[in-house]
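Memo to structure team: turn this sequence into structure tokens by end of day. - J.P.
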Amino acid sequence: MHDGSAARGGPPLPPAGAVGGAPPGAREPAPSGPAVAAPPAGPAAPPGVTGPVHAPLPPSEPTRLRIPAIKVDAPVVGLGLDAAGHLTTPPMSQDNLTGWYRDGATPGERGNAVAIGHADNRTGPAVFYRLGLLRPGDTVEVLRKDRRTAVFTVDGVRVYPKKDFPDAAVYGDTEGAELRVITCGGTFDRRTGYESNTVVFAHLSSVR
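Reply from structure team:
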């Protein structure tokens, strides 16, 4: 999700009130499947769902992702896991491209869909450079192959340290249709990369 050679202090962080956990410190996320325990309490817990909730949709692969508040409009490619079980990332050479974990829920169906993108690359800021600026109430729009647009409302933004990344809270199963949008964030170290992941939590609120 990052290259590091172009980092200039790292991408913007969420405002203090929106950040959960102790900033910074991160890793490439590896989906862990349904949670086997309740999400942790305290800062690591996901924000609660607020506002209108739309019933889940049938499965349909995503084709494009838009986030009007930060002017994101990018195609989506399917991603899998590498040999170590970590989620792969979109090609570094393409700065306006997002990825979706194809072995998980499709955006809009019941469960927790996962989208990722780079914060920057060798040429400068990339698709999710400003992801940390999102606020509760902002929207993420996912265009699907069935020609429906699943609209998700942001419930909150969290920044998680690598050593404390809460897999169950981020990747765990959900009763409704939810979305996690993930990129790198926090402090950048030229030897090890970004030390944090920024995670946007959102739920399906309408369909067009």
